[in-house]
## 1
Amino acid sequence: MSPVDYVRRPMPKQEPFERVRNFDEVALGYTAELAREEAARCLACKKPGCVDGCPVGIDIPRFVGLVADGEFAAAIRKVKETNALPAVCGRVCPQEEQCEKLCVLGKKGDPVAIGRLERFVADREAEEGAGEVPSLPPHNGLKIAIVGSGPAGITVAADLALRGYQVTMFEALHAAGGVLTYGIPEFRLPKAIVRREVEYVKSLGVELRLDYVVGKTRTIDSLGETFDATFVGAGAGLPWFLEIPGENLNGVYSANEYLTRCNLMSGFRFPAFDTPLKRSARVAVFGGGNVAMDSARTALRLGADEVHIVYRRSHDELPARAEEVEHAEEEGVIFDFLTLPVQLIGDDRGWLTGIECRRMELGDPDDSGRRRPVEIPGSEFVMEMDASVCAIGNSPNPLISMTTPGLEVGKRGNIVADEETGQTSRERVWAGGDVVTGAATVISAMGAGRKAARSIDQTLSTPV
């Protein structure tokens, strides 16, 4: 019997001094040899906790076992039974807080690198041009409208297309993918991969309509006249601000605008693309999540001399993935912990020149379980900055809720939906993903999509 291997295989990646000035993908992926070595570490548990930790229920031991045996095509088929976006999830999902967190090997060493293996089999399939479209059942005569083409919408579309429904996705922007396209930088998730995953869903017979703003072009009620059910997966595109003086100055961005200009509108390719992002020398990013890390690392690649993460708690409370924090640190992002912005300062031309901040200290834990930051009186100081990016969270755009009578919404404008089914207060209207929860992870949105697809199918296939 072979000894247990507690050490995971490292992922090859660009060196920090190389990658900090390009938008190429940082992580380079496993070779076939590394993938097989990593997969061979799996213990093939009889009661695999990793599956319980996966929001979309991938048969992880089986797919990992197939990788270990070199059966890469069979492995990606197994993944795609429950996940329509394997190349995306393998890159951006927080496996360390989900499937890998429950891996038995993690009790004494490193858990199996499930996400990296998922990425490997998806990329391998694409490299070999071996993508397979599963056999589709005959259309059952029922039509489904999907509002939004992000992770939740794509998951519902794929699941229902595989059940025989005629599915149409409506996307407000000029490119599909939702937050995968406009929100996650090229160096972390290349857009060619998002397009590839969208094309797979379209190959299942799903129709995609771009530049189609539900709530303006048509309302949810109008869609209900044509479609048998509607799923709303419109995301959370309304940014939050700090609501401090000076937020109307030039050089002050929301993370939504900053990343959308760069990702969806190819601002990082200016002047080849005519979407300019002003080069700033000193940039402050407010927040400590993945979006804050993405914004800070983008600013470096756009040519900033110095980039700061300004966060009111300490390093231990950062909500971003450990890997993203590590990459930001490697690239030279400066972390200003226990620091609260209280005022943005500008010049007589209306441009940001500095940020007045106040020092903080940690008090007792709040409702989130993290220690509450408490202001230290008289600790004010000024940081010289010529740009700031606010990355503290988002709410859903109110357009759909404002144009859909009887649709229940929460205090932050999120659509209220049943956690297990996605059913909203409106008959035959379901919702899931960030439009329900607020900004969260790609895989949690996909998990909500799977639940909603199951509920839609059960509802429409049950005789009245």
## 2
Amino acid sequence: MRVVKSISLVVLLLVAACQQASAAVKVGEPAPLFTATDSFGKQVSLADFKGKYVVLEWTNNGCPFVQKHYRTHNMQDQQKEATGKGAVWLTIISSAPGKEGHVSGAEANKLTKDRGASPTAVLLDEKGEVGHLYGAKTTPHMFVVDPGGKLIYAGGIDSIASADDEDLPKATQYVRVALDEAMAGKPVSQPVTANYGCSVKY
């Protein structure tokens, strides 16, 4: 428990820096287009999904913050909810070869199956091109793109920067709220929030 809380304190100290560093993209402006290879070796482009909401999730299976959201099924539940409503969910792995979280396509597919995850695709960004394009700094780091290709959300998956499972029920689920509001034709009430987690292992 003390280790988890210590990690959380370190992350909180980094939050402001992460927000400033993520100025590579701005909410309200067009989301940068990209093409990446998915875990099955297929080329996937953001432009392929014009007309749909798209969630971008940066991940690293070795990160305790990511592990929390998968261990509790919070991430899987939100993937299923989003895709069930017609949205696209792209899980992106920007860990470089030899760094924590780097996996092959086959390993990524096994992780997806073992965790019961339901992303539309898992993208392997081992050169960090997509991650740097978006200024992704942490795992998880979340973005939502609207059907017109505009970025409408950037930040954390939820409101409590913690790797402790017990904090999950108390947290506001920012990505879920953003999607629900946008799909209901409402403006996103919190379009930019503090991202938290482990650093992306570029």
## 3
Amino acid sequence: MVINTNISAQSSANLLSQSSAMLSKSLARLSSGSKITSPADDSAGLAVSMKLGAQMGRIDAANNNVGNAISFNQTQDGYLQKVGDALNRMSELAVLAQDVTKTSADTTLYQQEFSTLGAFINDVATKQFNGVTLFDGVGHAVTTDSDANTFSMTGVSLGAATYTTAAGDNINTNATKALGDVKAAITQLATDRANIGSNIERLQMHSDQLGTLKNNLSAANSRITDVDVAQESTQYAKYNILVQTGTAMLAQANALPQSALRLLQ
């Protein structure tokens, strides 16, 4: 029996230190909800998690862009619905102006309404969405994924000759020509609204795709970083018991050299 070197106490202290470290790590995981509380816990997993997190951030940004583009197209369509109402009324006026029972005073009144509606169409052509012109015919490129790939929306131009010609006609002098021009504008409007509908449908598909991708990336990231509370609670209970028993055994090991005194009595 030796006194200067207490091997049992040293071994107990070493095991107690290990148990205490694991207990502290378990407490950190439970309190943070993350399996990775320091890079040393899972360096490779941390690297993957960081890349997944960055990609999810870019997906959110792309989804915001897509959502704004959908709102842009919906605003366009809202205006074009009113333009359609105006063109429909203008076509009615062009037909009414050809009534042989109408006097020139009557057709002058029809022309006044016709020109007012034409001015409305010209005014709509200048409208903007957050400073971006709605009807300049430009096909804006919309970011659709985390790699900044784009989809070019089909543009609509209310400044096209088809619309401006119809808006500038005079049913008081040539109702037949005005009717033909308005019918051509209605046909063009139908095409433009169909293009906008296609834009919205395509963008909505991109938005749904981004949502699905983000959900799957979140699930993958969760498997790497999120702690399993039930499993970790079991580990916590284990290390807590080991710390308590280790403390008790260290006390016993420290008391062993005292037995050497009995040999000296």
